[in-house]
Every structure is written in structure tokens, then in C-alpha cells.
């Protein structure tokens, strides 16, 4: 089942910058799709349009059988950005239940949901901690937990691990795949500059050209999940990374 379709989608900003030109794509339920491309090629712009945060200037976006605005207001999509953007003065648990507080869900249910997602991201002992007591990797885990608390059908992740050190980044990649496999048919769309990250995580990679951004190539990573740490050392992994890097150069 298609959960996201872009048909000839373009975006020209008011200052005349053509950020995206005639993007076409079709994403199915349960996929993990990454977008790679040089800085400024329009990856975030595509995301913002699909998530209903910005309007295309041409073309059509169908998401979960409706418009991006409908998907956003029905809480069926969640976003995670590079900055964890946690409220510094409230606990991890309060940060996580924020989307449920806004929806005025019963308090008991909120706390149960917080416990569920804290376990998913391995932070069950930190519910009462304040964000300043956490490392960068832990803050990102909280940010992911907050995005998962509303059980989204599509999770948009825009360079979520870009500010983390390499070891933390790899650990979070593995954890993210585990979480994704535990959720029922959640689709993940992931922006990254990093070909290694894209190959490790995705079942499909969209390669974008420099501005104006177009989707120039689509690479399927035909390696079954769970992939495990050993996949990074496998020749298939380096072959796919080379394929993505070459595609980025053309
Ligand atoms: N609000 C805006 N007004 C004008 N131009 C913009 C706006 N937002 C983005 N742009 C421009 O549109 C182009 C695409 O930006 P976008 O952020 O989508 O790229 P990106 O691929 O996500 O970049 P990066 O990898 O550096 O985050 C860039 O040239 C950027 O400067």
C-alpha cells in the first residue's frame, strides 16, 4: 500500500530559489527510505512539504490517503530533527508526553505510554531526569521516544544523528532498526548526508542532485533485516556504499 506519493512536485521559495524540481516518488507502508544528496539539494524541503509544514508550488502530494495537512492534524506523522529540542525545565517523562498532553489524553494513559517508549529506547531509568543530565545520544533517544509516543504511521527523521560522535551514531542506528522492526508497519523516511548510514539503515535510497533538487537515482538495498553489526564489515555493504557514492557524483 502506498503511504506517500509525490507527483511532479516542485518548490520555488519566495526569493526565487528553486529548491525542488519535479520530484516523483512512491513509498510503501513499512519501508525505510533514505534521502541522500549534497547540502542544499532540497532534502529538508521535500520533508517539510510531505509533513505538511510547507506548501509545494507545483505538483501533488498524497500521504496516507489524504493531504499532508490532514496527516499532520490527525497525528499520523511525527518528525525528529538533528536538534533534540527538549524543554530544559521539565523531566524526560514530561518531554515525552508533551504530544499527549496537547491532546488532553488521560494522565494515567500518558504515563503508561511514556513508560512504553522509554523502554523502547532503553531509557526506562531516566523518566525523572532533566535533559541537562543526559548525553547527546540520550537526548536524541528522548527525542525519538517523543516522536513514537503518538504511534505515528510515518516517522520523518531529518539528519537525526548528524551531531553525534561516530560510535554513538552507529549504536543509535542499530537501535533505530530494532525499534522500527518492533513497530507494526511504521514507515521511516530518513535524511542523511552519509552514504554509510543510508546503506546500513534503508531498504531503498533516493539519491538527489545538487540544487535544484531532483531525485536522480533510486537504489534498492537487497539485504534482509535484522542486519546486525556484522553487515558493516560485509563486502555487500562496501559495494552498496560505493554505488551510492558514485551515484552522488553523477
Ligand atoms: N525558507 C527559505 N527561503 C529561501 N530559500 C530557502 C528556504 N529554505 C531553504 N532554502 C534554500 O533551498 C535550498 C534547499 O534547502 P534544503 O534545506 O531543503 O536543503 P537540504 O538538502 O536539506 O540541505 P542540508 O543538507 O544542508 O540540510 C537551499 O539552497 C536553501 O538555501
UniProtKB/TrEMBL annotation:
<dbReference type="GO" id="GO:0016887">
    <property type="term" value="F:ATP hydrolysis activity"/>
</dbReference>
<dbReference type="InterPro" id="IPR003593">
    <property type="entry name" value="AAA+_ATPase"/>
</dbReference>
<dbReference type="InterPro" id="IPR017871">
    <property type="entry name" value="ABC_transporter-like_CS"/>
</dbReference>
<dbReference type="InterPro" id="IPR050166">
    <property type="entry name" value="ABC_transporter_ATP-bind"/>
</dbReference>
<protein>
    <submittedName>
        <fullName>Nitrate/sulfonate/bicarbonate ABC transporter ATP-binding protein</fullName>
    </submittedName>
</protein>
<feature type="domain" description="ABC transporter">
    <location>
        <begin position="4"/>
        <end position="235"/>
    </location>
</feature>
<keyword id="KW-0547">Nucleotide-binding</keyword>
<dbReference type="Pfam" id="PF00005">
    <property type="entry name" value="ABC_tran"/>
</dbReference>
<dbReference type="GO" id="GO:0005524">
    <property type="term" value="F:ATP binding"/>
</dbReference>
<dbReference type="InterPro" id="IPR003439">
    <property type="entry name" value="ABC_transporter-like_ATP-bd"/>
</dbReference>
<keyword id="KW-0813">Transport</keyword>
<dbReference type="InterPro" id="IPR027417">
    <property type="entry name" value="P-loop_NTPase"/>
</dbReference>
<keyword id="KW-0067">ATP-binding</keyword>
Amino acid at each position: 500500500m502506498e503511504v506517500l506519493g509525490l507527483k511532479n512536485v516542485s518548490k520555488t521559495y519566495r526569493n526565487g530559489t528553486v529548491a525542488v524540481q519535479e520530484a516523483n516518488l512512491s513509498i510503501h507502508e513499512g519501508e525505510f527510505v533514505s534521502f541522500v544528496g549534497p547540502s542544499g539539494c532540497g532534502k529538508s524541503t521535500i520533508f517539510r512539504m510531505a509533513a505538511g509544514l510547507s506548501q509545494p508550488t507545483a505538483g501533488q502530494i498524497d500521504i496516507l490517503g489524504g493531504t499532508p495537512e490532514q496527516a499532520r492534524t490527525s497525528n499520523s506523522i511525527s518528525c525528529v530533527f538533528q536538534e533534540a529540542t527538549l524543554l530544559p525545565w521539565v523531566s524526560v517523562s514530561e518531554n515525552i508526553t508533551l504530544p499527549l498532553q496537547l491532546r488532553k489524553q488521560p494522565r494515567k494513559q500518558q504515563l503508561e505510554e511514556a513508560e512504553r517508549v522509554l523502554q523502547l529506547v532503553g531509557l526506562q531509568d531516566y523518566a525523572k531526569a532533566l535533559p541537562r543530565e543526559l548525553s547527546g545520544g540520550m537526548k536524541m533517544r528522548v527525542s525519538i521516544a517523543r516522536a513514537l509516543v503518538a504511534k505515528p504511521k510515518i516517522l520523518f527523521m531529518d539528519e537525526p544523528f548528524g551531531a553525534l560522535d561516530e560510535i554513538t551514531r552507529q549504536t543509535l542506528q542499530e537501535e533505530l532498526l530494532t525499534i522500527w522492526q518492533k513497530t507494526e508497519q511504521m514507515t521511516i523516511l530518513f535524511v542523511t548526508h552519509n552514504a554509510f548510514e543510508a546503506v546500513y539503515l534503508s531498504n531503498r535510497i533516493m539519491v538527489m542532485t545538487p540544487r535544484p533538487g531532483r531525485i536522480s537515482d533510486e537504489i534498492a538495498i537487497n539485504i534482509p533485516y535484522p542486519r546486525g553489526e556484522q553487515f558493516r564489515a560485509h563486502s555487500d555493504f562496501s559495494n552498496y556504499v560505493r554505488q551510492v557514492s558514485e551515484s552522488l557524483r553523477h
